[in-house]
Amino acid sequence: PFSFEDTCSSLWKIADLPYRHIDREVFRDIPDSDNTVAVKFRVKKMLSKDTSVSILKRVVARRFDHEDRVVMIWKVFWEGEGIFSGMDIDETAWVCIRPYCDDSHIGAMTETCTRQVPVQYLTSRKKDPTVQAFWKMTQEVNEEDEREIVRFLAKLLRNDCLPNPKVVLEE
């Protein structure tokens, strides 16, 4: 439902996962900072009422503008901490956004690919309860990120549909 330009702009605004606040550090002194973001933060969960776990995530994203498309690439390193120490994931993701037009719609088409490669420790100990808890947490974090991105885009859609474009909905 968004124009090509709005889709590109919106996805870039959320590329550094701005809703992740715990121990957040944004690296600003980087080359081409208009098209590159680098951030690290911690994700924490309670496994039980007595056990807190965390994963440190380092994210670097880069945007490439072309005449007929925009490509955004993410490199993410998930580093397990505490009882998750040694449980790491190397992730690479990209999204390609292209203008879309048919007889009745004008907008943007997105293609996405994500690849996660766990360290061998995770693949060799699949039945270990701690490894299973790590995998469960990474799935939950990914699902939270998906929900936040959808919520962000839905908010933009609602704002776009308002009669006065200067009014912004807050949640």
Taken from the alpha-carbon principal axes, the silhouette is elongated
Based on the structure, what is the oligomeric state of the protein chains? single chain
Q: What sequence of helices (H) and strands (E) makes up the elements?
A: HEEEEEEHH
Quantity of strands, as a count: 6
Quote the distance from N terminus to C terminus. Answer: 21 Å
How would a textbook summarize the main sheet? 6 strands, antiparallel
Q: What is the domain tally?
A: 1
Query: What is the CATH architecture descriptor?
Result: 2-Layer Sandwich
CATH level-3 fold name: Alpha-D-Glucose-1,6-Bisphosphate, Chain A, domain 4
Q: Residue-averaged pLDDT, rounded?
A: 88
Using only CA atoms, what is the Rg? 18 Å
Provide a short characterization of the protein structure.
This protein has helices spanning 4-13, 120-124, 129-161, and strands spanning 25-27, 36-46, 52-65, 70-81, 88-101, 106-118. By secondary structure, it is α+β, with helices and mostly antiparallel strands.
